[in-house]
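Q: What structure does this chain adopt?
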Amino acid sequence: MANAFFSDLLATISERGRTLLRRGDASNTKRDADGLLELCGALLSGRGEASGTAMAREVLDLYQELDAEGRRTFFEGLVRFFGPDRERLSKAIEQWRAKPSDEDASALHFASEPRRQELIRRLNRAPGGTGDLVNMRADLLGMMNGHTDLAALDRDVSHLLSSWFNRGFLVLRRIDWSTPANILEKIIRYEAVHEISDWDDLRRRIDPVDRRCYAFFHPAMVDEPLIFVEVALTETIPGAIQPLLAVDRQHLPIERARTAVFYSISNTQRGLGGISFGSFLIKQVVEELRRELPKLDTFVTLSPVPGFMAWVKQDRDLPLSDEDREVLKRLDDPKWFESPETAALLRAVLEPLAAHYFLKARTPKGKLIDSVARFHLGNGARLERINWLGDLSPKGLRESAGIMVNYLYRLDDIEKNHEAYANDGEVVASSAVKKLLKGEGRRLLDMRLS
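A:
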């Protein structure tokens, strides 16, 4: 209610400001990138609250009318014309060099701030401005595509969004069948790990007694889930996704649940890329579940391995013999997993290779290759198990030859595991995973002799 009242108040202020702008003939702006940049300059020049809010709304509305070329020109103009005030910055540098002090350091800090940061703050005052700025950054990220000319602008936008979307402002809400339909539609649309086919499929994931879904929301975007996690309550740690999503599965009586399985985590706002909520989401959901179901004692993921087959196919520095490579050619048959003999041969090659992928393979910068692994290990989880044929969907077979993994969140070890990964790059893994790596030669030989 309070949020709705505040939004209505802003809208009223904005509308009154628009009236003032119309009276002053200030809204006759050229409806192209140059005209939009002029309007941004006027917004920064200092206006009253009503007219400033209205002008911010007009900037955002005019931006929506620009085509892709116009938006890029607008972004380039923000980089070129809305940087720091060079004269003010030069004076602040001279003062600091002449007699360094805390006061001069503060003046230098504020003088070095690009003018576009204040512009973005003022745009955020418009009704609906926060969501529009998130969408604007999504456009910006799409245009960067490895180019660095817009990097300074992206740093400024992401810096402010990181402040506005920090954990203190986020609200955790459970998603169930009573959640408004417009939000449920977005859960269907945004699901990025295991596609939700229709409303019946959604209901099977959020309505039964042994299923949960939670999402983070921001007060300025009350109908937009920022990130959500789907949870299955089970007796033991699962090794495959199909039984969890099966249409005809038997629901587990809640009193028998001992394990919470995080089987899908989806970010929904591309414009918030690089601003992490996932670790906070998992930890808070664990707290919620433990409060509701004190008998839960195991918290684990069932995670995809989206980059595994791409890594295998690049075929550089892989621990593979010529015979192994011949075996891998069997993956070309789309029905390979239906043949027990073929599946056994491939398992002998791919399981040890998956262990190598997680424990030893690195990017040129020394990072783990797999983004899902970086996320969970960075949060303090342990690589618990590699699951053969855990995902037989076309996507799972294409991306990982059906392999899935479990990351275990053992609450007493989270901090220790996080420090090991963050400080030393150590992948904390179970003995079962390490044995796959250590025994890869022996296993391959045994399979071929049997």
